[in-house]
Amino acid sequence: MKKIKKMLALILSLILVTLALAACGSSNNVSKSSTNAKSQSNNGKKRIAIVVKSTGNPYNEKEIEGFKNALKELGDEAIVQEPAQPTADAQIQIIQQLTAQKVDAIAIAANDPDALQPALQKAMNAGIKVFSFDSSINAQSRMVHVNQADPEKIGRTLVQAISVMIGGKGQIAILSATSQATNQNTWISWMKKELEKPEYKDIQLVKIAYGDDLRDKSVSETQGLLQSYPNLKGIISPTTVGIAAAGKVLTDKGLKGKVQLTGLGLPSEMAAYIKSGVCQWMYLWNPIDVGYLTGYTADALAKGKISGKVGDTLDAGRLGTKAVVKADDGGTQVLLGAPFKFDIKNIDEWAKVY
Description:
The chain is of the alpha/beta class. The protein is about 50% helix and about 20% strand. Helix 3 runs parallel beside helix 4 and helix 5 packs across helix 6.
């Protein structure tokens, strides 16, 4: 009987030990699973928002396309916001909504460099990574800016182009987007500096008009320039909406060769005007690439790979490695590249792209 009791006690002990070991193993598995979940949460996809200037802008649509492509490659979630009007107030409302949604990063093409600051500061205080692209916000409101090209090269190149077209003398005008657009204003400031050179002494800048990146208003502003300045020889429009609108007005009024046109335009929208000779040549970069670089920059900021300081580098996918450099406004920027010239020789090829 005693032997049976000893046997039962031994069996019970073995069972208890087995259960204890199983419990320890289960506890270790739970701990490991929890660690993995935490790691996946930290390294998982980010919710990244892009805020363009306004809806219905073909240039913005191409930027969005590139942005989505980048985030798809990176495994992040793209949140696209397009204000109904190209105003700071419309963008402020969107920024407030995104802050409440606690997105990981906000990329914005500013309609005003300063008016957005209070809303963006609140977003940054909430831990959201904030930066600008295309049209910058002031240096205090961002971590970095994604710039499509060297502003000085853009401004000087456009003046050099119109000078050649009009034979170095005559009245010219600039048809810009909004009066607060930082990218437009920076380019225009460099145009003015270029015009100070002795070789442009016979060229007179008579007016800077603003079409607000709206087609109908840009058409109206172009018509106003032609009416107010009957001796106008050239128009520079550093906005894709503006240059296309000006091309239409010059075509409709039969002013080919009488009023020259250059600026920054989408090949698909300007192909007809370049082929007809209304616009001999114009410039741009690929807005798809601007959006693509914006997506990679947003991901790098959201995941802590860069902080936006000079010397930071990031992997920009098919665009290669990009460096953070100093910007003219005291902040920092990531540069896409130099502006590209489109003319009768290459417009058909590029019109199929964007």
